[in-house]
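Please, is this right?
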Amino acid sequence: MILRLLDFLSGWVQFFVSGSFCDVFFKDCRFYGIRLYDIKHKNDGYFCRASVSDYRRLLRIRRKSRVKIKLTKKVGIRFLLFRNRHRIGVPAGILLSVIFIIFASNRIWCINIVGNDGIDESKIYASLEKLNVAVGVKKNDLDTRSLSHLLVVNTPEIAWSAFNINGSVLTVEIDERTFAPNTIDQKSPCNIIADFDGIIENMEVYKGEAMFVKGSAIKKGDILVSGITELSNGVTVFSHSNAKITAVTNEAVCFELPLTQSVTTNTGNVNKISAFSAYNLKLPLYLTVPHYKSYRKEIIEKPLTVNGQKLPVSITDIIFYETKTNTVTYSSGEVNDMLKKLIEEYELENLSNAEILEKEETFSQNEDTLSVTVKYIIKKSMGTEQKITVTQ
């Protein structure tokens, strides 16, 4: 690929040499240091290839060798420019392309982040932007060692980072910081307190002194297991309480929906516009924007990739879906189904770790709305550690 590009820039020609003394012609070319390529015999002559400068030299020796030379092909940027010398757009386009290649070769085209499992990429990109690291920045302006240190300092979730530049691709390698869990040290004395009101269903105390028994009614904040134990000899012992406690509690939730609701749907009218993006430059590829009174917008970005690497050049499609809002009056049965769906979502999100012992649903309706009140009797784990501050 590179050799072809160099040949195109320097230029070459293909010609057909014929005559009775072609062997003398080839010997003279060798004697004068004229290099010929891709020599192929055909009929009564030979197809040859040579650089532009060598072709000019061999024209001087063709009479001496008594051969005929016919030019068959010219390839190179000089010939392309000459053929299109009256079309200013072609040389201008080539010139702009060369300028763009020179400009792009000294800048970062793509930024890859490696090693982030728990940190969102958008947060890392935002931290990089604060350090003036973005697509289009000059490679010579990047102090990779200093940037590695600053990224760790500015992003608490990152423990280590490294910046590696390969061509126009910047790879940022990171190691995420592991934070210690927000729990009390197992050696520190603590009580276990109630999280909610309820009745103790089961209580297994492994360490500490139980303050309640099975069947006791408790309130939120009560000390269930004390980490302070007084022995018979008057000695006070502090311990890190440990217990497995389950309790039964009541819980209620209410949902309400109107019978008449506003529903937004697509009309079926769709319009798409596109834009070209290169670095921070955005060029619209459209003349007008759809003028829908109400619409839903979808943005699809299609970046240009080379060997799996994203380049800072992309086409962005913006799709407009025209919408309309209608007022719909549902029947009581339909709204009941909607409320039951809300109840299912609530249980999945809030009661997945509890055992539902009893459940009572009470539906009520007035002129405009339908509501449901759900009362639960559930059993779930209870107990939160509360540190004991010991003073001398």
Observations:
- The longest strand covers residues 309-329.
- The CA atoms of residues 290 and 374 lie 47 Å apart.
- The chain has a mean pLDDT of 87.
